[in-house]
Amino acid sequence: MALFRPSSGEVTGFKVFFVLVVLYGLISCLAYFVIQMKFITPLGIDAPLGRFSAARAIEHIRVLAEDIGGRQVSNDHVSVMLPSSG
Which residue windows are transmembrane per the record (predicted)? Predict the structure, then answer.
């Protein structure tokens, strides 16, 4: 004895709903790849200054990380957390 036995109309409705969900997912993936992957290319270092350039951003981060050197932190909260060196 089954506790829940759906009628044929409910089964058809679930099948249609499932097909629509799968179709929506496929169209969403297709739209994502077409919009995001095919038409957007990172701008080089010679891009106009008014536009964002991934190459300039990476170069700026490299300068901050390597060329400037270490940074000294002076904060009372940090010094409480760090062990004393003396």
Answer: 12-35
Distance in angstroms (rounded) separating the CA atoms of residues 81 and 66: 26
What's residue 16's pLDDT?
92
Structural domain range at position 45: 12-70
Please give the pLDDT value at position 79: 54
Q: How far is CA 26 from each of CA 12, 18, 21, 56, 66, rounded to the nearest angstrom?
A: 21, 12, 9, 36, 44
Q: How far is CA 41 from the centre of its chain?
A: 16
Domain count, the chain: 1
Residue 2 covered by a domain: no
What pLDDT digit, counting tens, does each position of 48-80 carry? 888 888 889 998 888 888 877 666 666 655 555
Q: Which residue has the higher pLDDT, 42 or 17?
A: 17
Q: Is 27 left (phi over 0), alpha (psi -120 to 50) or beta?
A: alpha
